Amino acid sequence: MSVLYEGKPYTIERWTEIMLSANNVTAIIFEEETGGHEFGPAFWDGIKDFMAVIPSDELPDPIFYPLTLTKLVINGEFGPLEGLPDSLTSLTIWSNEWNLPIVPGTLPKGLKRLKFGDGFNQPIADGTFPETLERVNFGFSFNQPLTPANLPVSITRVRLNELYDHQLGSCAQHWRTLRYDAILELMPGLVCQALTNLSTKFADAAQIITANFPTLQTLHIVTSLRIGVNKYIPLDLSTLPASLHELTISTNGYYSAFPQGLDTLEVNGNDPNFRLAPGILPPRLRSLTLNYYHHQFEVDHFPSTLTSLTLGDVKKWPYPNQLPTTLRSLILRINNHNLMRHTPLYLATLTLTRIHLNYTSFSLDLYRIADTLFLRCQGTLFDRLPTCGFISSQKIKSIVP
């Protein structure tokens, strides 16, 4: 019996020899063909020696890893992490069942990225992680203490999930990016001096201040900035770090002020208590996203520096004369058909160079070429190249639902 490999027939014995001696294999795909190449008992019996190098209950012998291997994803059932090649820089444990201790010194010496499966919840012994490790995702179930002794200072990017209930300690002083899906609680006196990007589900605004995060630039609060605070009491967010440039929050009552240095702001949520007022938005804001906003817009709501505005499922649209003349990009995601009647007004607003309309299955992405002529682009994130063509204002008006 023979095997076709790269279009040439080989005996099973010769094919096995070629596979085991290769040092740059990235994938092996078996495809059944007629004419003596079917997958029958003889085929599987013939390659049993090759298949045996990856048994189901332990990792392969180190001699079977390609010498050029830098990235490894492991799934299924397997034993301790032993014999991994030192060439690895990225290791992902995809299995949600794997939950075994890691013996210090067994991880590859040059490892830079490490992602655990959602079942992992083992104490991290001192010296477990190599000094080259830069990024680590601990998985959903992890809830073990992290200290400067078990986390090297080389780590700059960390993800901790919902079940983690320890205080954030001094090991975080060197981190630059943190995703923290539990309630953020800081050790007293902690200064995250290197952290520039923070994403968390729950946080107390009183903890996220310049003294604790002196270099923070991006903050994403997925759920709430209010812990134990009455949402009918206006929350002053100007106390957030002065270094902050980008903020994403959910509406959770009233806000009396935002950080003055922001250039990007996104407000999500469906709380009718959130309302814009003159001067509440930062004076140098360039990009604003509002989702599920309930109220009428006014001409003095938007700062004169605004260049991009995205509105998602708002109750009312702003009229063109309520928008700042600096605005160049307007993105509208609509769930109310009646709001489409404003489309001709936006088409006639010559300062708008990009207009994106999205209503159920109808989508228009327009780039202004001239007063009444646009470049229309159609496509999705999965298209390698979107389809583009010219379209006039009159034609757009005729196809808008």
**Class per helix and strand makeup:** mainly beta
| Head-to-tail CA distance between termini | 63 Å
Beta-strand percent range: 25-35%
Q: How is the biggest beta sheet arranged?
A: 17 strands, mixed
What share of residues is helical?
under 10%
The H/E string reads EEHHHEEEEEEEEEEEEEEEHEEEEH
> What gyration radius follows from the Cα positions, in whole Å?
28 Å
Shape summary: flat
**Low-confidence region ranges:** none
- Please report the number of helical segments: 5
The number of distinct β-strands equals 21
Mean pLDDT: 85
What does this structure look like?
There is one protein chain. This protein is mainly β. Among the domains are: about 50 residues, no CATH class; about 100 residues. It has five helices and 21 strands. The strands form three sheets. The protein has a 17-stranded mixed beta sheet. The protein has a two-stranded antiparallel sheet with strand order 1-2. The protein has a two-stranded parallel ribbon with strand order 11-13. A hairpin with a 2-residue loop joins β1 and β2. The longest helix is centred in the first third of the chain and has 10 residues. The radius of gyration is 28 Å and the shape is flat.
Descriptive tags:
flat, two-stranded antiparallel ribbon, mainly beta
Task: Give the topology.
Layout: E1 2-5, E2 8-11, H1 12-21, H2 41-46, H3 48-51, E3 71-74, E4 90-93, E5 113-115, E6 135-137, E7 157-160, E8 177-183, E9 197-202, E10 218-224, E11 235-236, E12 246-250, E13 255-257, E14 264-268, E15 287-291, E16 308-312, E17 329-334, H4 343-347, E18 354-359, E19 362-368, E20 373-378, E21 387-392, H5 393-399
Parallel strand pairs: 3-4, 4-5, 5-6, 6-7, 7-8, 8-9, 9-10, 10-12, 11-13, 12-14, 14-15, 15-16, 16-17, 17-18
Antiparallel strand pairs: 1-2, 18-19, 19-20, 20-21
